Amino acid sequence: MDWLNRFTDVMDCISEHPVEGIGVSELSRRTDLSKSTIHRMLSSMLSKQFVTQNYQTKNYLLGPKAFLWGSQFLRSQDPNGLMGQYCEEISSKTGLYSYLCIYHGKQVYCTYTHQPSHLRNKYFVHVGQRMPFYCTAASKAILAYQKPDCVQTLLADESYKQFTPYTLTNQEALEWELETVLKEEIAYCHQELELGVTAISAPIFYKEKECTMSLSIVGESTLIDSTKETLIQDLKTVAEKASSHLTSMHMLTSIKL
Description:
Number of helices: 10
CATH class of the largest domain: Alpha Beta
Number of strands: 7
Number of domains: 2
Strand order of the largest sheet: 4-3-7-6-5
Order of helices and strands: HHHEEHHEEHHHEEEHH
Low-confidence stretches: 252-257
Structural class: alpha+beta
Distance between the termini: 36 Å
Helix content: 40-55%
Strand content: 15-25%
């Protein structure tokens, strides 16, 4: 299965650069594969539309087939798109960019975003993006409600990167922060990924204290700090509505089964 491992490693690297793409040299360095091997792989992947190439920069990006598979996966997590309405509701209440995330396969992914029409800022969060457990509010809001041994394993497996001076890369400190999330039912990413940008997230429960989804808002740190308490209350109110909805859906599914 070496070919599958190589393919997965290359696709993982390319997916981490959704806008600018990544070049052959960098792919070779990141995957420990020779440039000739990378070239052969990319040639086949281009023909199958797994990747595309920017012919100006020569960098490679995810292709139509990858996006198709990804969109089908995301659609399967909320087949009727019912939870997205809560992104729109919290954006309407706060005027901030919002997003919905889900825990699946030991990863947290963004499944829905909403940007109010008046906002000009385009934040880095996009549908399909993986949200690291150690430095994103969306993942912390979910991770805090997983079993302790699962939390330790997931944090131990993270590839910690210091994005800003505020990024926590100490596992013990992160576990302490998750205890606070449990008490307050709210999680933060205060300039941990990007200076001047803060996100706040609330868990969405499908049963009592069982969580695989989170609802988040993100914006300029100065704005969020100045209206923090109001934003938290609004976020919790909408997240509670989403939890009631998800609990009802879960109960109906359980009855059908």
